[in-house]
Amino acid sequence: MHKKTIGDLPDSVLRGRRALVRLDLNVPLNEDGEITDDTRIRASVPTVRYLLDKGARPVLLSHLGRPKGKPDARYSLAPVACRLEELLGSKVEFVESTDTDEAIKASHETKAGEVLLLENTRFLSGEEKNDERLGRTLAELGDFFVNDAFGAAHRAHASTAAVAQHLRPAVAGLLMQRELEYLGSALAEPKRPFVAILGGSKISGKIDVIRELLPKVDAMLIGGAMACTFYKAMGLEVGKSLVEPDRVDMAKELIEMAGTRLILPHDALVATSLDDAGKAHAVARDHIPADAAMYDIGPRTAESYTRAILSAKTVIWNGPMGVFEKPPFDAGTLAVAQAMAKATKSQCTTIVGGGDSAAAVTAAGLDSAMSHVSTGGGASLEFLEGKTLPGVAALDDAALR
Ligand code: ADP
Ligand code: MG
Predict the structure, then answer these.
(1) Would you say 320 and 310 are in contact if contact means Cβ atoms under 8 Å apart?
(2) Number of Cβ within a 10 Å radius of residue 112
(3) What helix, strand, coil percent values describe the chain, rounded to 5?
(4) What is the whole-number distance in angstroms between the Cα of residue 339 and the centre of ligand 2?
(5) Catalytic residue among 17, 49, 202, 342
(6) Which residues belong to CATH 3.40.50.1260 in the chain?
(7) CB-based neighbours (< 5 A) of ligand 2, an ion
(8) Cα 358 vs. chain centroid, distance in angstroms?
């Protein structure tokens, strides 16, 4: 995964030349088409700024939403152009097409110090098919290629994969570089003890991560509803908790394979339903009432997970410990986030991956207290599964050091 980055490009490649930059500007919009969270736009600014400072002329590509391969005004990047211009403090010209002569002409006419943003790549039918011809046309929009869309790197699309076959150099942007460095070095050479924390609703979506990480970690702490599928495998009563009956056998296998490294919650915060949050109470894991469900790890578990995190040197976290959207079932998730923030201060590398986990950390105001919060939910998960990300594989390899 050692890839060339924009920092490796000499000034002769950058100055005055068109940088075709694939960004992840896939921001949430409300019904009035207003941006409700501009985190991804902010995260894209440093790379664009770097290119502008080096005298390059950035031509930006991104997807937004799921417009199904044809133009759909609800998913236009036009509002993003305005927000990007404010954040960047440089002019952002917007062209309402992507692979047209008009777009290519605009790419040649962009002035130094200005940025060109083209329309949503997913308006094009060839994008999600990784169409060869579309890749070739997109390549005409720049003189070299920069991929900074880590959040889209697990998809082989024309603007992340095919385009790079026709446009060299093809390098990682600053955000992509940071993602690969943090996630990559945590997996390749973690400082120990190395602790992974996994939660979320479904064990089925995380099996490959569990399998990949188990042999590498010193401890794996389990939370979320997936704990209940493990409980079931242990023969415990789980009441009305969310379990995946077809995954119970596999949970048994994982428990056997893991030995003492796999740690399940000792206690649970339970209630008869999510609407009955006022009557939530903690029980030992072998005392979950038949008419109740586990909606969070219990306080004893939160304490012992906190201790494990504070004694670690590398922590990777994916998946909330409970239904964090609904207090008091956010307590376990908050405890983990706070412990990680504290560990970061004493030289522990802390990494958060996964859309909901990242949202929980941000909502708690602790995102900047972590070493790294990944911007790519699905992409970070596939990375942790040990999979090759097509958007990364398509980039030039770094020179051997
Ligand atoms: P991420 O996006 O961080 O990878 P997931 O999407 O796997 O996380 O899981 C997040 C969801 O899991 C949240 O919506 C949360 O409410 C749910 N969840 C966590 N614990 C439980 C539980 N005990 N019962 C039901 N849902 C849960
Ligand atoms: Mg999620």
Answers:
(1) no
(2) 10
(3) 40, 15, 40
(4) 21
(5) 202
(6) 6-176, 190-384
(7) 355-356
(8) 8
How far is the centre of ligand 2, averaged over its atoms, from the C-alpha of 318 (Å)?
A: 9
CATH class of 190-384: alpha beta
Report if pTM > 0.70: yes
What strands, in cross-sheet order, belong to the sheet with 262-263?
262-263, 219-222, 194-198, 314-318, 349-353, 372-373
Q: With both helix axes pointing from N to C terminus, report the angle between 174-188 and 377-384 in degrees, rounded to the nearest 10.
A: 30
pLDDT tens per residue, the chain (401 residues)?
A: 699 999 999 999 999 999 999 999 999 999 888 999 998 999 999 999 999 999 999 999 999 999 999 999 999 999 999 999 999 999 999 999 999 999 999 999 999 999 999 999 999 999 999 999 999 999 999 999 999 999 999 999 999 999 999 999 999 999 999 999 999 999 899 999 999 999 999 888 898 899 999 999 999 999 999 999 999 999 999 999 999 999 999 999 999 999 899 999 999 999 999 999 999 999 999 999 999 999 999 999 999 999 999 999 999 999 999 999 999 999 999 999 999 999 999 999 999 998 899 999 999 999 999 999 998 888 999 999 999 999 999 999 998 76
Q: Are 223 and 210 in contact (CB under 8 A)?
A: no
The CATH class that applies to domain 6-176 reads alpha beta
Q: Is 376 in the pocket of ligand 1 (CB under 6 A)?
A: no
